[in-house]
Design goal:
Blueprint lengths: L2 H19 L6 H7 L11 E4 L1 H7 L3 H11 L7 E5 L2 E5 L2 H15 L13 E5 L11 H19 L3 E5 L8 H12 L2 H6 L1 H15 L5 H14 L3 H25 L16 H10 L3 E4 L2 E4 L8 E4 L7 H16 L3 E5 L5 H13 L8 E4 L4 E3 L2 E2 L10 H19 L6 H18 L7 E2 L2 H4 L7 H21 L11 H23 L2 H21 L9 H22 L8
Helix pairs in contact: 1-4, 5-19, 5-21, 6-19, 7-9, 7-10, 10-11, 12-13, 15-16, 18-20, 18-21, 19-20, 19-21, 20-21
Bound molecules: arginine.
């Protein structure tokens, strides 16, 4: 019997008993909703609180619980008892364990998949760093959160389309060109594109206060770029290409791929359609020379066109939304972007709604919290910068040192160190609710004990290693099972994995999976510490199946987060 079926059986037994005592007071669904999963195993696997009925029938809950028990058909359960105002149901553990383990092992990595998405396309706007600037920790968050959501949705049979909406257009390119022409060198850009370009840009800003003519020149260059001037276009393309190369290195390390790199510039020739449409629908207003869409008292107006005719971030996002709707006919469009852009996405949705597109309701801003350092916002100017590349590098380095110390003969040490070091960074980012802010501490990220990715990875590898040993040592075959407390705990969690994935998908919340993986790893380690696995008794097969199913689920949980699970470490 599976866990969901078991719950249904409990409900049916209660409902049948109730036809005797209190007919038509609680519907089947109501009984189902009232059923609880007790925190403490001694309270059974499901508990029915009698408070609601007690109120309806004007009797003490204890009494009601006892009356139900007296009427209850108990054959489907190992035990049913009244404890205070609760009726506690104990399942036949052996039966649930046998079906659950068989199901997990038969399904393998597919365990937990469902068909709910019906292949519908979900567009995920994620990562989206800005050209000629280093990828920030915020972009890292967007990248790993978006990537995990894509994996979770794939598991639920949706088709995600991962789009990197590169920040590759805007007046900053004029400044960059001026700076490059004045102080730049081709070799530097080739060798270290992001840092060089960043350096030029910073230098421009150091000087433009005292030399306002620099700004005029920058405007000039941006205009050239907009008009398709050859040199300007050449430079823009080159900066973009070199930046993208540097970003790709990070994506390769993280193991993240995209379906599209259509950035802001892609929409240049699609902007006039937007302004025309807004005009046609009578939504554009002129305010201080600029064109805006008024969004009522609750939102600031959307600034569509500046007085000099330049379009804005939101204009590009309007064009992008329309393009994506036409191209992918998305069921949902997710934007994985920091909470600080909430107003922007509310405006985007509101303008599209005003334009009469009912698919605007399928737009979701998947916001996430800020990463701070020492409680303060990260800032290049204030010197509070954390470079993603450094973090990844340090973490991999530490993983390498740990492996050298603990398992020096491990084959393919470097690959494993990479999986562990990078996994630590990703897991650290995903284990908290995405909307929480958190303070960045490198020591926290590269900590491998406690609630970390490497802890889950170690647990998985440890179970794998026992299974490897078993394959060479034991041949006993048997089917007898008696399920103890700590293994029962594991079985129930395994059975719950599909439900956990569904929940993570619905909430667009990878932390649901991360927390689950931590719980399962902890339960497994508890079991492992208190039992002898490789003893040739009649329970051996059961224990090995339990280990096998646990490795399958831990590995798949990590996979859904975008974290690898090495077999040995
Ligand atoms: N490039 C922007 C930034 O770094 C993020 C873009 C998010 N996506 C979007 N469609 N607006 O802030």
């Amino acid at each position: 019997m599976k866990l969901e079926e078991a719950k249904r059986t409990v409900q049916e037994a209660i409902s049948t008993a109730l036809t005797e005592i209190a007919p038509q007071v609680l519907t089947a669904q109501k009984v189902m909703n009232l059923l609880e999963v007790p925190k403490n195993d001694r309270m059974g696997d499901f508990a029915f609180p009698a408070f609601q009925l007690a109120k309806n029938l004007h009797q003490a809950p204890q009494q009601i619980a006892q009356q139900i028990l007296d009427q209850l058909d108990q054959t489907a359960f190992a035990k049913v008892q009244v404890q205070g105002p609760y009726l506690n149901f104990f399942l036949h553990r052996e039966e649930v364990a046998a079906t659950t383990l068989a199901e997990v092992i038969a399904a393998g990595a597919d365990f937990g998949s469902s068909a709910q998405g019906q292949q519908k396309q979900v567009v995920i706007d994620m990562s989206s760093p800005n050209i000629a600037k280093p990828m920030s920790m915020g972009h890292l968050r967007s990248t790993v959160i978006g990537n995990s959501i894509a994996k979770i949705l794939t598991k639920l049979d949706y088709q995600p389309v991962k789009i990197n909406h590169l920040g590759d257009w805007g007046t900053q390119f004029g400044k960059l060109m001026v700076a490059y022409k004045k102080w730049g060198s081709e070799e530097d850009v080739k060798r270290d594109p992001i840092n060089s370009l960043q350096k030029y840009y910073v230098k421009f800003h150091q000087l433009d206060q005292e030399h306002p003519e620099l700004d005029d020149e920058a405007r000039e260059w941006f205009k050239k770029l907009e008009n398709g001037d050859q040199e300007a276009t050449y430079l823009w393309r080159w900066f973009r290409k070199e930046s993208l190369k540097a970003f790709t290195k990070v994506y390769d390390q993280l193991g993240v791929t995209f379906d599209s790199f259509k950035g802001e510039a892609f929409y240049n020739d699609k902007m006039s359609e937007i302004t025309d449409l807004l005009e046609e629908k009578g939504l554009l207003q002129t305010s201080k020379g600029a064109e805006i869409v008024d969004l009522g008292p609750d939102l600031p107006p959307a600034l569509i066109k500046k007085s000099d005719g330049a379009t804005l971030y939101i204009t590009r996002d309007l064009a992008a939304a329309l393009y994506r709707q036409r191209t992918y006919h998305f069921a949902k469009a997710l934007y994985v972007v920091g909470s600080e852009q909430s107003v922007h996405f509310e405006q985007l949705k509101a303008v599209l709604q005003k334009m009469g597109y009912d698919w605007a309701q399928d737009i979701e801003h998947i916001r996430f919290g800020l990463i701070t350092s020492g409680g303060k916002k990260l800032s290049t100017r204030a010197g509070r910068v954390i470079l993603l590349e450094d973090v990844l590098h340090d973490s991999v380095q530490l993983a390498q040192a740990q492996i050298d110390a603990k398992n020096p003969t491990l084959p393919d040490k470097e690959t494993v160190a990479h999986a562990v070091g990078v996994g630590a960074v990703i897991f650290h980012d995903l284990k908290n609710n995405r909307t929480d802010n958190f303070d960045f501490q490198l020591e926290e990220v590269v900590r491998f004990e406690g609630e970390t990715g490497p802890y889950v990875q170690y647990t998985h590898a440890r179970a794998q290693s026992v299974l490897r040993k078993a394959a060479t040592q034991v041949q006993e075959q048997s089917t007898i099972i008696t399920v103890g407390e700590s293994d029962w705990n594991i079985v129930k969690q395994l059975a719950n994995f599909p439900e956990v994935i569904t929940q993570a998908g619905a909430q667009r919340e990878p932390s649901v999976i991360a927390k689950y993986a931590l719980r399962l790893a902890k339960s497994f380690n508890h079991y492992y510490a208190h039992s002898k696995i490789l003893v040739a008794d009649e329970q051996l097969d059961y224990r090995l199946n339990l280990l096998k199913a646990t490795t399958i689920v831990l590995k798949e949980a990590l996979n859904l987060l975008g974290v690898q699970a090495p077999d040995e470490m």
